[in-house]
Amino acid sequence: MPKQSPIPDALDKPFYDACNEERLVVQYCANCLRYQFPPRPACTRCGSNSTVEWRQLSGRGRIVSRVVVHDTPTSSLIPGQPFKRRGYRTG
User: How far apart are CA 67 and CA 50, in angstroms?
Assistant: First the structure.
């Protein structure tokens, strides 16, 4: 059965690792002085891949949209999901 959630790869693993530490990080291009999301191998504006780095955001901002993530009812898929569960009970 295919996994229902993203499987982190080398490109977006820093994002999921930070989420599991309750931090928000986004790629930033030091050449263009701009943030980009979703993660890309290079800056979408200047094309540089040597100036793109991960930066932690302050956590301040304005919510313009929200998403509710529901856990999978199939317990065999839970270990493969890229984010931790709080209060998850088995059985």
Answer: 32
Rounded-to-integer distance, Cα 49 and Cα 30, Å:
10
Sign for the CA dihedral angle at 66, 80, 53, 48 comes to: negative
User: How far apart are the C-alpha atoms of 80 and 27, rounded to whole Å?
Assistant: 24
State the residue for tokens 């530490």: 21
Residues across the chain: 91
Tokens linked to 21: 């530490």
Q: What is the pTM of this model?
A: 0.64
Confidence of residue 57 (pLDDT cuts 50, 70, 90): very high
Angstrom distance (rounded) from CA 49 to CA 61? 27
Q: Put the strands of the sheet holding 34-36 in their side by side order.
A: 34-36, 25-29, 52-56
